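Subject: Sanity check before I submit

Could someone independently write out the structure tokens for this chain? I want to compare against mine line by line before I put it in a report. The sequence has 814 residues.
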Amino acid sequence: MKKISIAVLLLGTIGIAAQEQEEKGKQIEDIIIVGNRNVKRTKLETPVPVDVINIEKIQKASPQITVQDLLNYVIPSFNSVRQSASDGTEHIDPVTLRGMGPDQVLVLVNGKRRHTTSLVNYQNTVGNGSVGTDLSTIPVIAIEKIEVLRDGAAAQYGSDAIAGVINIILKKNAGASASITYGLSGRNDGDTYQAGVNYGASLGKKEGYVNLSLQLSHRGKTTRTQNHDLDIFGNNFAYPFADDPEAARAADDEEIRKRGLTRDDFNFQIGDAQIKQAQLFFNSEYSFNDHFKLYSFGGFSIKEGKGYGFRRLPSETFNVVSSLYPNGFQAELGSQVYDISYAVGAKYNVNNWLFDVSNTFGNNTFNYNVSNTNNASLGAKSPTRFYAGAHSFLQNTLNLDVSKNINRFNIAFGGEFRFEQYQIKSGDPASYTQYDVNGNVAGTGSTVIGAGGSQSFIGFSPDNTLKKDRHSTAVYADISYDLDKKLNIDAAARFENYSDFGNTLNGKLAVRYEFLKNYAVRAAVGTGFRAPSLQQQYFNNSYADISTSGSTIVTKGIFNNDSKAAQVLGFDKLKQETSVNGSLGFTLKPAKGLFITLDGYIIKVKDRIVITSNITDSRLSDPDVVGVGKEVESGRFFANAIDTETKGVDLVISYDWKLGGGNLNMNLAGNYTETKITDFHFPENLGTPQNEFFGPDQINIIETLSPKTKASLGLNYGIGKFNFLVRNTYFGKVIRDGYPFGSVQEFSPKVITDVSVGYDITKNINFTVGANNVFDVFPDRQIYENSYYGVFKYAPVQMGTLGSYFFGRLNFNF
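---
Independent answer below. Compare away.
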């Protein structure tokens, strides 16, 4: 038998370059599911790079406890970013691959397409304007391994697979296991608890099984802010706007003293949101005979989050009811996210023809609750808690896949029918309505005493509500050829028809050739596409944000492409993104235990869908254009606004060495990615300058807000009952543009060090202690202009703002 090296798994560098340790002179390689339909191909024979991550062994020794955090530290081309004070994005971390968007990564579970979240990221975070997949809804305890295909695969899997594919494979083994983790940051906040149990049993006599997983977790909030420079009780939003800033500050200090308070009572809560989650998953298969089997898998997740909006100061009399909040308030945004998935299918094998028919269902619902807030137009009668509405996304996919292996050829073909539905539901009337002084709904010319709706997060109104759906039909075919593991060729083609925008045809060709023993070259070229999500086509709302001048908090709007505002300004209906992918790489095994892979790639995307900057066109002031009850300073729209080009290279080096009676594994993995906008597409009737249509801050998010360079160097040493891990992760520099009221700032590269020590108490019980970011490294502090008057001490860059984090974990296997 052969045991996969833990350190290789810990670093995610095991793709084609991976080395499994040898016992009894034999090598066992993982069969790859993702990227081709040749069930006999291993990860050492694929013509495109595939990482295979053994989650159970990673999670045993790593400080990270969620899927996205684990991958963030083991795959350099993968990034996941926690956000703060960003509405729903605080509760679902956007994830990216190879510098592309969250919606350009396709996620599969057991090889079947998984649904995305219903949330649109629109708070100028990484992945702005995109809709991704929430990896945290899948419990770590339920996962056997994860395959990450680092290559475009739309010709094989359809929409979203421009940057690559993440295939999550659930456990199917018999037996029981459990894990209990507790952790705490070096600042005594952000405490984490996670408990999970997995149980598997055999079914019948033909290798059937059922596997169940339950996981409960809690992540406490963190506070990473500093004293701010806001005019708390004065008539100015911040001291820099006062005629005499020092006098204004002194007046505030005197008022604070009179009220028996301190400035700390007016600090913002800025940091990681609190998250509580419960998950139940299953995976099962039953064989009736050698030819026919049924399978099913899925799960349920409920996540409750608590994040925080901008503080409302007592001086903001139009936003704050002083009788309710004499010292102002900071609203709390509570989320309830329900996620359910279910797949059922049958496989039939006759004369080496494999038929697989399946139906996969998924639904994600995001509910908003706002507390510690008010509707200022109601005065003292205002509630302080509001249900602010919800959005949901449903996806149902029916697949038929047929494949056959004939000598050196593997042929496959099939079809897919997918139905999708997106819905927005309104909240409590008081969460979105502005009332007049008599308590009636305000109209033109009404006398009002304050802003309408729930402060911090304005509820969805009946004008926002909708229920939209579409369907798509696809057929595909692919063929692969293997010649004695020396030559591998894949060719694929896929045709899809969408009910809302039409047809697309895509193809791919990939080749691997071993020109000398242990030395191979591989290359791939293909076209791809990404259909505009229903969320991007129809999401609309009003939201609170900093004004263009930076001097106050105002209401802004997002308008969908069906709106009159979009039509008047000349925005076209959204269409699909199209792409061309190319890659060239080498795999080398120059010495025993030494593996090297080097892969370069280029991805060109045309008509990329983004959300615009805030447009202040005079036509948006017309109530007939904007809509009743939507008094907004500016509007944003989804558009096929840009073309991009992404270039990069992945390097993986792994070396195994028997040392001092133990096994030492050394790994180096790195990624360099650069994305540039190559063209802009403006609506013909829109006279807005580029800085308002797609400004420097939006260009910054695409080009320089994610690190161009990321690398990981790790040592893992196992001897006897002990295992030692030291891992250094390099996060390259990023640039943040604070436009329109901030400045450009460069954040220097940082190295984060993880350490852990594990000990096998018994054959079935392991205890591990360790730390993430043991040296307490933080990103550079933000310059004052970008910090919202000193509130945001750190920018939410890839390495995060948690600081040092220490953990202990017990693992059980029965």
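---
OP: Matches mine. For the report I'm noting this point. The two ends are 20 Å apart (CA to CA).
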